[in-house]
Amino acid sequence: MLKAETTPACRAGIAAAVLAVLAGMAMPADAADWLAVSGFSWHFQERRHWRQINPGLGVERDMDESGYGPWALTAGYLRNSYDKHSVYGGVRWTPLAAGPFRFGLYGLAASGYPSPILVLPVITVEGRNIGANLIAVPNLPGYSGYLGLQLRFALP
C-alpha cells in the first residue's frame, strides 16, 4: 500500500493526465464508446493507509448518439483505495454542461466497498479521442473524501 507521503507522485500523475486531456480537446467529442482507465486517488484524511494508485479498466457507453450526452452506462474493474478488488456497473448522469465540461453524478453498484451502492459527484471532460472523469467526494462522517481520476480513450 502507498502511504500519504507518496502523494506528490499521484499529484504529478493527475496533473499530467489533465494536461493530456486538455491537449486532446481540440475537436469536440464524437465517440460513443470509451475505454476507461482507472489510475489515481488522493484522500483528504490520513486515518488509514489508502491505496492511491488504483489500476483498472472499464468501458463507458454514451447513450446520446452524438457522443456527449448527459447519460452513459459504465462497467469495469479496479483495485480500490481499500486495496480490494472492485467490480462496478452503473450509470453516469451529467445534466449540467459548460463547454467541454459536464457535471453530475455516478450511480454505481460496486464490490469491495463498505456500501455496495455508490453515488459519487463527477466532473467529465472530453475531446474527440480522449477524456477524463474526476470524482470529487467531500469528507463525510466516518469516511475520507477524495479526488479520483479516470482517463477515457475513444474506441473505434
Descriptive overview:
There is one protein chain. By secondary structure, this protein is mainly beta. Helices cover 11% and strands 52% of the residues. It contains 1 helix and 8 strands, in the order αββββββββ. An 8-stranded antiparallel beta barrel has the order 1-2-3-4-5-6-7-8. It starts with 6 loop residues before the first helix and ends with a strand.
Please summarize what this structure is.
The protein is mainly β and 156 residues long. 11% of the residues lie in helices and 52% in strands.
List the helices and strands and how they pair.
Elements: H1 7-23, E1 33-43, E2 53-62, E3 71-79, E4 85-98, E5 101-110, E6 117-126, E7 130-137, E8 146-154
Antiparallel strand pairs: 1-2, 1-8, 2-3, 3-4, 4-5, 5-6, 6-7, 7-8
